[in-house]
Amino acid sequence: MPDRYGRIHHPGFTTYAGAHGAEGAIYAGSAVLGIGVGSAFAALANLVVSVVDRSRTGEVTGINTIMRTIGGSLGAQIAASVVASRTIPGTQIPAESGYTTAFVMSAIAVGVATLVALTVPGRLWQRATAPAPSPPPGVASPAQEFP
After folding, report:
1. CA within 20 to 30 Å of 42's CA: 34, 78, 96, 124, which one?
2. Domain coordinates in residue numbering, the chain
3. Where, by residue number, does the polypeptide cross the bilayer (predicted)?
């Protein structure tokens, strides 16, 4: 699952880095990133909940949200710093190379995050189905009702 969403994000940032001079490429890159981010955030919440005990679901989803917010904030500030550090000589206007560098760095970060996500232990990699829960005491299971 994480690999699939990393493969969605990566082309979006590489499109921005390589073809940011064409309007259509920017639209395509934005569409790909929008689909990738939306899909990844939804899947990440499910992944996090699936690898913890049910009694800890609230804690884990809260930590997931906090870490996502911190990551987004840090990523945006790092990208803004890179863009602002490269200006057109004699002005305060950001140069194209600042944007290109920020997009390349974002693509690399997505690649690294994908590799890290693939190392996460848990039920994601276990395809075996869990046994059905046993019925409460005094309630017959379907197998007992129909021999």
Report:
1. 78
2. 2-120
3. 25-49, 70-88, 100-120
pLDDT tens digits for 54-100?
888 899 889 988 988 998 899 899 999 999 999 999 998 999 899 88
For the chain, how far is it from start to end, CA to CA, in angstroms?
Answer: 40
CA count, 13 A, side-chain hemisphere, 65: 6
Contact, 109 vs 72, CB < 8 A?
no
Q: What is the mean pLDDT of the chain?
A: 77
Q: Residue 132: pLDDT band by 50, 70, 90 thresholds?
A: low
* Longest Cα separation, the chain: 87
Instruction: Measure the CA dihedral 77/35/16/11, to 10°.
Output: 110
* Residue 41 CB partners (closer than 8 Å, separation 6+): 68
**Angle at alpha carbon of residue 113, lines to 59 and 127, rounded to 5°:** 70
